[in-house]
Amino acid sequence: MLQMEDYKQGAIMHIRLTNFVTYDHMEVTPGPNMNMIIGPNGTGKSTIVCAIALGLGEKTSVLGRAKDVSEFVKHGHERANIAITLAGTDGPVRICREIIREGNKSVWQLNGRSATYSEVQKTTRALSIQVGNLCQFLPQDRVVEFSKMSPQELLKETQKAVGRNDLLELQQELAARRQEETRLMGERQRLAQDIDTLRKQNEVLERDVQRWQERQAAESQMRVLTALVP
Known about the structure:
Layout: E1 12-20, E2 23-28, H1 45-55, E3 79-87, E4 92-100, E5 105-110, E6 113-115, H2 117-126, H3 143-147, H4 151-162, H5 165-228
Antiparallel strand pairs: 1-2, 1-3, 3-4, 4-5, 5-6
InterPro entries: P-loop_NTPase (IPR027417), Rad50/SbcC_AAA (IPR038729)
Organism: Coemansia biformis
GO molecular function, one term: single-stranded DNA binding
């Protein structure tokens, strides 16, 4: 039997859905390594993806689908429930979201006690879960959006997905230093050009000074010779 120690921090250990989209009741126990959900079209594979996003506190916009969370309550029912168990630092972390059709509301629980939405977000952030990051969680309805991301955007989101908060700061600092280096190199090149221009001007002035000195010497010699003529 799998133990929590087999899972990395933040990994999903268990999912339970009740009256959610196509499911009356469904439970999934992912393994600690790569997991694949395989089935024909229309069997509810995407429903599990939606449950993961909504159950971990994301807005419906991250799925690119329904606007209201109440639309995920199964037809004919007033409430749906998503329960997700994660591998935490000090033990399993269980997040429950009850979706109420009337009023488009949600009620949260964290490890069996009532919780606020902000508490759930704080918990998932502490486990480096970023459902809104397309490099970590990619719903099929947002694949086109992912394909349009620039290399810079992909790098930024990948750094976030790694879970090292300092990576993005270091990359931004490196980019700033690179810009400063480029600016200084340009300034250096400009100064070198100015020095070369001044050197050439100085050479011209030196030749002018030399010619002036030669003329002065010639004029002085001429005055001496003129004075010697009887």
